Amino acid sequence: MDNLFPAPVANFADLLLDAVCMVDASGQFVFASVACERIFGYTPEEMQGRVMIDMVAPEDRARTLAAADDIMGGHPNLHFENRYVRKDGTLVHLLWSARWSDQHQLRVAVARDITAAKRAEATQAALYAISEAAHATEDLPQLFQHIHQIIGGLLPAACFAVGLHDECGDQLRFAYHADQHGPLPQSLLAHVMGEEVRRLGRPLLLDPADLAPLPEALRSAAGLSPHCWLGVPLTTSQGPLGVLLLQGQGEHAYTDRDRDLLLFVSTQVATAIQRKRMHAQLRFMAQHDELTRLPNRRLFHDRLDTAFARAQRQQGRLSLLFIDLDKFKLVNDEYGHDCGDLLLKEVAWRIQACVRESDTVARIGGDEFVVILENVGSPDHALVVKDKIHQALSVPVALAERGSLSIEASIGVAHYPDHGADTLQLLRHADNAMYASKAQPAPV
Ligand SMILES: Nc1nc2c(ncn2[C@@H]2O[C@H](COP(=O)(O)OP(=O)(O)OP(=O)(O)O)[C@@H](O)[C@H]2O)c(=O)[nH]1
Fold first, then answer.
1. What's the gap in Å between 351 CA and the centre of ligand 1?
2. Which residue numbers delimit the GGDEF domain (predicted)?
């Protein structure tokens, strides 16, 4: 190097904090200033003779070669950004200014390390994207997928898992678990790791090379996996919500900086989850009856429209059962409103137990329930269900200190296509049939 440049020039270049490099027409480094060691991890001597493009991150190579061609064609570049792979394997983000010297047949370039700024930029973008995802996604599983993608852009995440506290707050339930390596044994480790992060209430970095400080259960689970893991608690202003776990890619070892970054982002993740849960809760409340948690009148009509359209399209059958409790008012009057509530909940539960999960049971009024039976083979099938419900409701309901309570119900049935060509006709038919049944004297 000293032969190529007068000593003062090389000395001045070595005083600069940015890296000064010179590359010949074949793309080899012929000069690298002292600052290169801090930026690239290689000493100037180690850099000399290396092929520039081999040090560039593979994803940035095509762009870098195109920019180099342009510079050598006589177009200096003041702002070129790319990433190099440092000697320790990590990436460094660089901002280059470069020009071609015809006289020396060299590309002269100065590189500034902008890794910290890039990381801050990426973190801000991730925070924004997570908050956007809370609005843009339909439900929690979709939100988790988005968050996985966003965090995967910041940190390696071969496995990404979100565990949420159950309602009692004493168990973790994995609401999202995406794993490139298959479900086991990593998911066992994810479980043990998640519990440990939850117990500690702070981040945990698991490095297979340094398991000694970990509790026994975690150590033995981690012994099955050669990968590095990172776990952080998800916490909102209202308290702990769950944990977020990442597993490193291949040999990648997470650093303390990765841990701090994930912890920083985790607040936004927790807020997004909480917001999504709140939306889901509001939607549920708008569509369900608070007491029995059955679909309410509005959701019933939606479901009926959908089921009706499907039956029409598939030329299938559908039955509607209108159920009205008899003399329910007396229950309230004689036993009190609380007992009335209890009875309604029990009735809801018993009706649901008589039908398939794909059928709909809704509460559309005080003591009025309705059932949509889909894919019924024949009207007889609906009559069997009707008898089943009669029987189920005829069993007295036990009241803690007041003995038991019996209730009867009037049930009206309407079949599609027999009793109506649209939902209105069907509803009317079922309602009339129910009133006709109520008007009949009770069997002695
Ligand atoms: N406990 C309780 N009672 C309710 C609720 N919603 C409505 N009710 C009561 O349910 C009763 C319904 O009365 P009606 O429609 O006259 O029905 P019924 O007494 O069963 O009369 P029939 O249907 O003619 O046999 C009223 O007393 C309402 O106050 C509720 O959520 N909880």
1. 18
2. 316-444
